[in-house]
Design a protein that fits this description.
Length: 166
């Protein structure tokens, strides 16, 4: 009976480590998807597509992890007039599990959409892509290194707790 308890304790700590590693991978995937989606949006703006058309396309067939953001933003476009595009974009950005600096890089693109000419919008999108790309690269590194660290630490802590209690 004690052996089963020790195994369960070790498994619980390992599961906690694996959970944290999974969070790091999801954050890296979200940032990479946002970069890809903004690159697609930049292409849409450069061909002078309408904002609603570009958002609908990204919501339907954009990078998987970014679709929820564009679905929320697209749904908010129905309230355009009551709220500005930048406010709708910010509201959608706040729904994402991003750090403040990452959210600010994403929000910066929304402040120009639908407000300025195509060149200014392309410039803002390019800046956001560059900043989010840097964040995505760091997040991938953290997911690789931190994933192994959290998994190993969870297993080690679980084994130590099991040994101490056994």
């Amino acid at each position: 009976m004690r052996a089963i308890g020790a195994i369960l304790i070790a498994a619980a700590f390992l599961a906690a480590g694996l959970g944290r590693a999974s969070e790091l991978r999801r954050r890296a995937a979200l940032l990479s998807s946002l970069v890809s989606a903004l690159e697609i949006m930049r292409g849409e703006v450069s061909r002078l597509a309408g904002l609603d058309e570009a958002v609908e396309r990204l919501e339907r067939a954009g990078p998987e992890a970014a679709r929820g953001f564009f679905a929320l933003f697209g749904a908010g476009l129905e309230r355009l007039g009551e709220l500005e595009v930048s406010e709708l974009w910010d509201a959608a950005a706040r729904s994402l599990p991003l750090r403040d600096d990452e959210r600010e890089a994403l929000s910066a693109a929304g402040r120009c959409l639908g407000r300025y000419g195509a060149d200014e919008q392309l410039s803002a999108l390019s800046r956001s892509i560059e900043e989010l790309g840097a964040f995505a690269g760091r997040a991938r590194e953290q997911a690789e290194n931190g994933g192994r660290l959290y998994t190993g630490a969870g297993l080690a802590a679980g084994l130590l707790a099991a040994i101490a209690l056994y």
